[in-house]
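Reviewers asked in the last cycle whether our approach scales beyond single polypeptides. To address this, we selected a multi-component target totalling 227 residues and predicted its structure end to end. The input consisted of the following lines:
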Amino acid sequence: GENVEQHPSTLSVQEGDSAVIKCTYSDSASNYFPWYKQELGKRPQLIIDIRSNVGEKKDQRIAVTLNKTAKHFSLHITETQPEDSAVYFCAARGTNAGKSTFGDGTTLTVKP
Amino acid sequence: DTGVSQNPRHKITKRGQNVTFRCDPISEHNRLYWYRQTLGQGPEFLTYFQNEAQLEKSRLLSDRFSAERPKGSFSTLEIQRTEQGDSAMYLCASSLDAGQSEKLFFGSGTQLSVL
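The resulting structure, written as structure tokens, was:
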């Protein structure tokens, strides 16, 4: 089955700096890669996603890149703000597969 | 709030008791998922339904766990003879199967504590 590894497990940055979170996956058939943000005590919420036929996607301060050959994808947050502090999860889903496999999360702390 | 609704929010039970959780998905969503999350870990897949059909179950799901979605709308997850290792947040998510991508909308979860 699919295995998703996520690094780093914790990340601390100064407000205004950039943050990068990386994930690798094992199943070359995976074709959909979402990122979820989970604030303390709240539900995970999708913040951005990318399909395997696209190398990069951007939405304001958030971007995701995908390298299918190397089987890794990354989340980039620019101009970080304290409200970006949360746990971020990457996930991978395969063709015709119902389930998404999640990484173990990265706790991002943005210091004002 | 027209999002995914889960009840109860918290459940405390004694080891050996049975518990049942309910999930009401977003009304037009045909897929419904159950995940389990423990502290410091990502959501772990348990099972999912497309309409009323249960299409996949995790091999981690022992025979003490059973899920239903009888009319293709709400779903229940039952855990029989609970064990302390069952303590976790149980998350429900729903999605509209669009083929090309599948955005999951999560509920707030049911926090289970087994004493």
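Chain A touches chain B at residues 4, 6, 32, 34, 36, 42-46, 49, 51, 89, 91, 93, 98-105 (CB under 8 Å). We regard this as preliminary and will revisit it once experimental data from Aim 1 are available.
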